[in-house]
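STRUCTURE:
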């Protein structure tokens, strides 16, 4: 992934990261990136929603993508998840191209989207058993209690989903996302509609994802929460990453000003 440092006039200083699969002479082979995208483009008729995005993320990295409505963020996540075919470009997971005709890659990716993909007439445990069966997961008697404990819903296993608060449903959706131990986790606006208390609970759950073994991409409008979780940050505007930086390079007190200056910059 490129590291961007703002320059006057909106230009970026860009450092290209060498391909991890092509070590130099005499060096040991390096592990392939967990998630890699090259030249991603997505068109909807005459509208270009995503316009040539590149990214490279390793294990333990957490990329937060900010941007206004209509910037193409959800389309980007759709392509990274395999749910949306790129018009051009490719996605690789652990060095292997994402093959839409295969099923194995689905075990490597977990997605938390707006829909939640929960069945209101089933209980919490029944929802997880259903998804566990879809993935042919072994040892659900262990997995399900562990995931519910991790998201603070251990006492709600027999509760119907329709009886849960919005915040609880979000946490259950996250348990579903993590049920199959994916390498890559994609989060689409997880804080939408949550009150401060529910947001704090969700944040404590998301912090568990920063265990060094998972790779996370989160799209959010919540500047504070997004910065809190990220190791890298990008601002997406008009289908492109208009600004990128590592979190340690960001002045958090000035980031809101940076965000608005990038988003409001004339095309």
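SEQUENCE:
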């Amino acid at each position: 992934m490129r590291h961007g440092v703002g320059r006057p006039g909106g230009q970026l200083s860009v450092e290209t990261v060498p391909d991890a699969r092509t070590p130099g002479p005499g060096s040991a082979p390096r592990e392939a990136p967990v998630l890699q995208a090259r030249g991603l483009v997505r068109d909807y008729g005459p509208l270009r929603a995503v316009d040539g995005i590149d990214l490279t993320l390793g294990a333990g990295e957490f990329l937060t993508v900010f941007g206004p409505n209509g910037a193409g963020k959800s389309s980007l996540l759709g392509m990274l998840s395999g749910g949306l075919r790129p018009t051009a470009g490719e996605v690789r997971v652990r060095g292997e191209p994402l093959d839409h005709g295969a099923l194995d890659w689905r075990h490597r990716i977990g997605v938390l989207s707006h829909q939640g993909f929960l069945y209101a007439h089933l209980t919490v445990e029944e929802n997880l058993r259903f998804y566990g069966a879809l993935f042919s997961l072994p040892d659900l008697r262990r997995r399900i209690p562990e995931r519910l404990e991790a998201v603070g819903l251990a006492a709600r296993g027999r509760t119907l989903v329709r009886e849960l608060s919005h915040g609880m449903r979000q946490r259950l959706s996250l348990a579903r996302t993590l049920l199959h131990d994916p390498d890559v986790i994609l989060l689409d606006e997880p804080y939408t509609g949550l009150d401060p208390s529910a947001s704090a609970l969700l944040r404590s759950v998301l912090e568990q994802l920063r265990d060094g073994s998972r790779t996370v991409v989160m799209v959010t409008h919540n500047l504070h929460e997004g910065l809190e979780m990220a190791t890298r940050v990008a601002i997406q505007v008009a289908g492109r990453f208009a600004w990128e930086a590592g979190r340690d390079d960001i002045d958090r007190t000035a980031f809101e000003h940076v965000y608005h200056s990038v988003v409001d910059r004339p095309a």
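REMARK: The two ends are 23 Å apart (CA to CA).
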